[in-house]
Each structure stands twice: as C-alpha cells, then as structure tokens.
TrEMBL record:
Database matches in PANTHER family: PHENYLACETIC ACID REGULATOR-RELATED TRANSCRIPTIONAL REPRESSOR, TRANSCRIPTIONAL REPRESSOR PAAX
Protein name, UniProt field: Phenylacetic acid degradation operon negative regulatory protein PaaX
Residue ranges constituting the Transcriptional repressor PaaX-like C-terminal domain according to the UniProt record: 191-283
GO annotation (BP), single: DNA-templated transcription
Residue ranges occupied by any Transcriptional repressor PaaX-like central Cas2-like domain in the UniProt entry: 104-174
Organism: Duganella vulcania
Location of the Transcriptional repressor PaaX-like N-terminal domain: 17-84
InterPro entries with a match to the protein in the record: PaaX-like_central, PaaX-like_N, PaaX_C, PaaX_trns_reg, WH-like_DNA-bd_sf
One Pfam family cited in the UniProt record for this chain: PaaX_C
Length: 308
C-alpha cells in the first residue's frame, strides 16, 4: 500500500467532519503561522479532504458563533483568526497533543472543592464540564480531583470561568501514620480508561500501515508537499480525537502496557517524516493570498520533543 492508497482508503472509510477538521487545521497549521488565514487559502487547505466551499463556510460560521474564530473583511475578501479568549485554550490543548507522555506521580492529588456553595448552578455546571474535559473526575459530591494536575492550566481555567477565589483548591497525600486505603485506588473508582485504550488501539491499527508507506516514500525520493500536508493533518486529527479524551493520568497509575505510549511514538514518527514537506504546502497556500504570511514560529519546532 502506498501513501495515496492509504489516504483514499481513510477518507472513504472515516471522513472527518468539516467543523472538527477546521479546528485541527487551525491548531496544527494556522496557529503556528500567526493564527490568521484568508478564506481563499482556507478553502484551498480544506479542498483535499472533500470539504467544499459551502461546507467550509458553514463550519467557520458556527465556530465564529461559538467564539472560537473571529472574522474580518477587507473589501470582498474575508479572513478568520483565533479569538483572543480561544487562543489560550488552543495553545493548552495542542500542547497536550504534542507533549511526551512522561507525567509521573508524586503520590499527591489535587482536589477542587465547592464546600460552601459559593457557585451558582450555571457556574457549577461550567466548572464541572471544563474540569471533566481537563481529565478530572468526580471524587465525591462537590469534589473533583486529579493525581497529576497542571497548576497553571487549572488557574487559567478558573479565571476564564470567572470563579477564581470561589473554590477551595488543595493538594494532599496519604498520611503515613494512618492505615487508610491507597490513594491509587481512586483511579479505578474515578476513571474507566478502557474506552481510551480502545481508541488508541484503533488508531494504531489505522496508522501503523501508514508509517511503513511514508518511510518507503521518503526512501524513494520523498513526499509531494500537498500529500505530506494531507497525511499530517489526518494524523493529528485522528490522534487529537483520541488523545483529548485521555485523562492524562501519571504513568504509574495506568494499565501496563498502555497503548497511548505506542500511539504517541507512532504519531511522532510519522509527523517527523512529513512535517517539513507539509510546511512547504502550508507556506505556499497561505502566501498565495498574503505574501507576508509568517513562517512557522520557533515554538512549532518544539513539538514531539523537537522536530530537528
């Protein structure tokens, strides 16, 4: 199987949804180039996936309604950019995607408590939704926790929701002098990672054959820029769908072997093989409408532990 056969088979069997694909392309390809794109270039970037002009316009309209994208007009041309409030969420989410799976457990838990009912119903619902998305679990009524919380990300989340200073946020460990249950048992009670594991296994089954095809193409002279871009986009789109459901538990608290580790290494290997050629296509496409479109920012090359 060559790369074109794999792409055609993937798009026929598991075509990405337009709106979700736009989010993937913004996060993976447009944010590193300044976060803004003209509509004509965006149409060109979506075309290889079978997304036509009408579907794209509908997708960006809905993303704008939801506060993810902002639109501007210059005469008859339109451009779209990540809004300032959404940019922090994009950066955090995509940092998770490209970061190595090396979170270790120090034996502590971070707990978020709504002890005295300081939040109203809408605030409680928003906090619960966002913390679940961040991988937290409901430990008990009014208490959510995680064994490897990202402190700055939690602080940004609470500030964004306008509830900073309204909740108790504590970090605790088991007391050695007390014969209590191991805190590690909270994982089994709070998370069912079997679905995430199955998602990773499905991803590996889909993209394992692609790695061999990419390696063969590179050995035979390399990939065409658009071909590399399509592979990179489908790769990150599929990996993102699984990885963002992963609660990011420390490696010591995960089943062994954990398929997420193999999925990460597979994603990294394919990304490293195609990213440079894909960047050629992205640069060319963005600069067709905007000759001053910036090259990828230096932070882009830190992805997956370093792209050099």
């Amino acid at each position: 199987m060559n790369c074109n056969d794999w792409i055609a088979g993937f798009l026929a069997s598991d075509p990405p949804r337009s709106k979700s694909l736009v989010v993937t392309i913004f996060g993976d390809a447009i944010v590193p180039h300044g976060g803004m794109v003209w509509l004509g270039s965006l149409i060109e970037l979506l075309a290889p996936f079978g997304v036509n002009d009408r579907l794209l316009r509908t997708a960006v309209f809905r993303l704008a309604q939801e506060g993810w994208l902002g639109a501007q007009r210059d005469g008859r041309r339109s451009s779209y950019a990540i809004t300032a409030p959404a940019m922090a969420r994009f950066v955090h989410a995509y940092r998770r995607i490209y970061a190595p799976l090396n979170v270790h457990w120090d034996g502590s838990w971070t707990l978020v408590l709504n002890g005295d009912g300081a939040l109203n119903a809408a605030e409680r619902s928003a906090v619960r939704k966002e913390l679940l998305w961040e991988g937290y679990s409901v430990i008990a009524p009014g208490i959510m926790g995680h064994p490897a919380a990202d402190g700055p990300a939690l602080d940004e989340l609470l500030k964004r929701l306008g509830v900073d200073g309204k909740l108790y946020v504590v970090q605790g460990k088991a007391m050695r002098q007390v014969s209590g249950r191991p805190l590690s048992e909270l994982v089994a009670a709070g998370w069912d990672v079997s679905g995430v594991a199955q998602g990773y296994q499905h991803f590996i089954a889909q993209f394992g054959p692609l790695l061999a095809a990419v390696q063969a193409a590179v050995a035979d002279g390399g990939l065409a820029p658009q071909q590399a871009y399509v592979i990179r986009t489908l790769l990150i789109h599929a990996y993102r769908r699984v990885q963002l459901h992963d609660p990011q538990l420390p490696v010591e608290l995960l089943p062994t072997p954990w398929p997420g580790a193999l999925a990460y290494e597979l994603t990294r290997a394919i990304y490293l093989a195609v990213f440079a050629a894909a960047e050629q296509h992205i640069d060319t496409t963005l600069r067709r409408e905007d000759p001053s479109a910036p090259a990828a920012e230096p932070a882009f090359f830190d992805r997956f532990g370093g792209l050099a």
